[in-house]
Design goal:
This protein is α/β, with parallel strands linked by helices and 347 residues long. The protein is 27% helix and 24% strand. It has 13 helices and 15 strands. Helix 5 packs across helix 6 (178-187).
Length: 347
């Protein structure tokens, strides 16, 4: 089969690799019908995730059709149309029994495209299939379902839920990439008083407005004081969501949040960020981090099927599966291409 493989920082190849096969009774092999590229894949290609070894098939988000299941799979069968979650869950360990699937100690967690071969291929082996696949209703398109593999549950769980967004809150989202825009969509479910989005790119700020942001701020043209002034009383955000993954954006979040506020870090960081406790200790802040658990995926899928979750506009570029190298170039060059989320389809 064809797949996108990692060969060290800055090096990737779209070429032929062996087809996946069942290894464990709880495995399923899924034909990829639609797949996307994540910002985390770009972090891997920069060398920010050293656990990814040479030759690894990248990717952890997909929609597909089950073609084979192991003897231990009970909930799925060949022919089922499924969402492949970015998180795999053994379902038995202490973390999984609490719904904290991202921290699975039984061989799951974030493994696809990380510790085992992933989804940017014609086929993928999915461990723990009963707990790691979701059957898709006919009303949900492949393209829309792709957004539930990672970015929507990530923004909802790690951003909105960890940040405890509540009605009337001022929410500042730093970063208007796919995760930041998904955070705008998910924040609106809680009726915040004001959503402010900060980004460098005018095109992404325009996308944030379309997604429902009340205010947008061009990074570099306004300091933390000016962003705090956009809150209901000038004291700052109740919740600041970091959706980039660089030290400057994390530190900005800690400066724009009000005393007693919450900073929810969602971005994947490849470099250390400074936590200025000499300034923050007195301000009663809560700082959270997190890897998505995808425990919210069934809820989000129900809302999507019912038309209660608007994901229009998040996918900006579409390709055939065999155009994977072009899709990577467009996604990595978002500053010039205007790409948000890219989607690739079996043709």
């Amino acid at each position: 089969m064809k797949a996108l493989t990692f060969h060290g920082p800055g090096r990737r190849t779209w070429g032929t690799v062996p087809d996946p096969a069942l290894r464990e009774p709880e495995d399923a092999v899924v034909r990829i019908d639609a797949v996307t590229i994540c910002g985390t894949d770009l972090h891997i290609l920069k060398g920010d995730v050293p656990e990814v070894t040479e030759g690894r098939v990248l990717g952890h988000e997909a929609v597909g059709t089950v073609v084979e299941t192991g003897a231990g799979v009970r909930a799925f069968a060949a022919g089922d149309r499924v969402l492949v979650s970015c998180i795999s869950a053994c379902g038995r360990c202490a973390y999984c029994r609490q719904g904290v699937y991202g921290q699975c100690t039984g061989g799951g967690g974030w493994i696809l495209g990380h510790l085992v071969d992933g989804t940017q291929a014609e086929y993928v082996r999915v461990p723990f299939a009963d707990n790691s696949l979701h059957r898709l209703p006919a009303a949900v398109s492949d393209e829309d379902a792709l957004l539930l593999a990672d970015i929507l549950p990530t923004s909802f769980e790690v951003g909105i839920r960890n940040g405890r967004v509540a009605p009337g809150d001022t929410v500042v989202i730093v970063g208007a990439g796919p995760i930041g825009l998904a955070a705008v969509t998910c924040a609106r479910l809680y009726s915040p008083g004001r959503i402010v989005v900060v980004d460098l790119a005018e095109s992404r700020l325009a996308a944030a407005k379309r997604a429902g942001a009340d205010e947008t701020v061009a990074a570099g043209t306004a300091d933390a004081d000016a962003i705090r002034a956009l809150s209901r009383d000038g004291l700052g955000a109740d919740v600041a969501i970091e959706a980039v993954g660089v030290p400057e954006t994390f530190e900005l979040c800690t400066r724009v949040v009000r005393p007693g506020g919450r900073v929810a870090n969602v971005g994947v960081h490849g470099r250390p960020a400074t936590l200025h406790l000499e300034d923050l200790w007195i301000r009663n802040l809560t700082v959270t981090t997190g890897l998505v658990d995808t425990s919210s995926t069934p809820l989000l899928l129900d809302m999507l099927a019912a038309g209660r979750l608007d994901v229009s506009g998040l996918v900006t570029h579409r390709f055939g599966l065999d155009e994977m190298p072009d899709a990577y170039d467009v996604f990595a060059g978002a500053g010039t291409s205007g790409a948000l989320k890219v989607a690739l389809f079996r043709t």
